[in-house]
Amino acid sequence: MTWLITGGAGYIGAHVARAMLDAGEGAVVYDDLSTGIAERVPRDVPLEVGSTLDGERLARVIRGHGVTGVVHLAAKKQVGESVEQPLRYYRENVEGLRTLLGAVTDAGVPSFVFSSSAAVYGMPDVVLVTEDTPCAPMSPYGETKLAGEWLVRATGRATGLSTASLRYFNVAGAAAPALADTGVFNLVPMVFEKLTEGSAPRVFGADYPTPDGTCVRDYIHVVDLAEAHVATARRLREAPGTDLTLNIGRGEGVSVREMIDRITAHTGHTLSPVVVDRRPGDPARVVASADRAATELGWKARHGVDEMIASAWEGWMHHHPAR
Ligand code: WQD
């Protein structure tokens, strides 16, 4: 099989490309390099530079490489930016997906894996979020992911395309330093940035209704996440007509304070965190039930938080060598 991995030069996509190769699958990356980095794409994987808004180019690439399945990760993913630029997010994330699905169905490609997000749930008021927990996204970013799931499912029903939407929880870590996330938009890199600047990491609110007052999340190692894509891709191939929606998390909650403590312990930095105001829109607790992915895919996360922190820190130092 040859899997077209859109966004395969990005942080998660490059890990998916690598996992596909390691599993003996064929892969080709399609990325506009707006935030992707060409060097992240494994050497044995062809890189086609193009936009998901360019249906003709997509059709040529799908035909030219004999693509037999798609993993679609290419998207804008900053929640705050999506609030300021909703039109841009709907265009890239929904119109880009619609264009891609057009090319995929025209070419008769049978399998499609869509990169969704726990952001579809918004502020869930449950201990463990199942795939049946009602979706109520709190940002245009989350809306585009939910609308994307609908579009993918409707296309599957109408055309017989086998589909899966993977709802990622909080992704961290790296398979190798060069593959690490270079964006500083999430807790782990934001803490690294503060520590290397010599300033105190910030806790956005310590008055949440959680055991230590800070927000609780479900952190998942990007290597486990990438393996979940391989397992999903194989499942779609082996069971045509499939329509899956799966949480991809570990099912274990870790608080912001605990994450920061583990990061400072690992890096040897002794700066104590400071509590600042809540960040608007943050839910107190978002932790996955990972049962359905285990049942449907036989997949389970293998790596813990300390491995995420250690590999992310190596990556941070690789991309930010001390001056
Ligand atoms: C985690 C917790 C912060 C930085 C977002 C998107 C989600 C997905 C992943 C996209 C929160 C707290 C953070 C800091 C802090 N995105 N925090 N100090 O908000 O759970 O999820 O990223 O694909 O859709 O919503 O992740 O890493 O930003 O924050 O206290 O310096 O850490 O308030 O409670 P979040 P995050």
Provide the CATH architecture of the largest domain.
Answer: 3-Layer(aba) Sandwich
Name the structural class.
alpha/beta
Note the gap between the termini: 45 Å
List ligands, each type once: UDP-4-deoxy-4-formamido-beta-L-arabinopyranose
Strand order of the largest sheet: 3-2-1-4-5-6-11
Number of helices: 10
The name of the CATH superfamily of the largest domain reads NAD(P)-binding Rossmann-like Domain
Principal-axes shape call: globular
CATH topology of the largest domain: Rossmann fold
Main sheet: strands, sense, barrel:
7 strands, parallel
Q: What integer is the average pLDDT?
A: 97
Q: How do the SSEs run, as a string of H and E?
A: EHEEHEHHEHEEHEEEHEEHEEHH
Helix proportion: 40-55%
Rg on CA atoms, Å: 19 Å
Number of strands: 14
At the first level of CATH, what is the class of the largest domain? Alpha Beta
Strand content: 15-25%
Could you list the spans in which at least 5 consecutive residues all have pLDDT below 50? none
The domain tally reads 2
Kindly list the characteristics that best describe this protein.
seven-stranded parallel beta sheet; 41% helix; UDP-galactose 4-epimerase, domain 1; 14 strands; 10 helices; three-stranded mixed beta sheet; binds UDP-4-deoxy-4-formamido-beta-L-arabinopyranose; alpha/beta
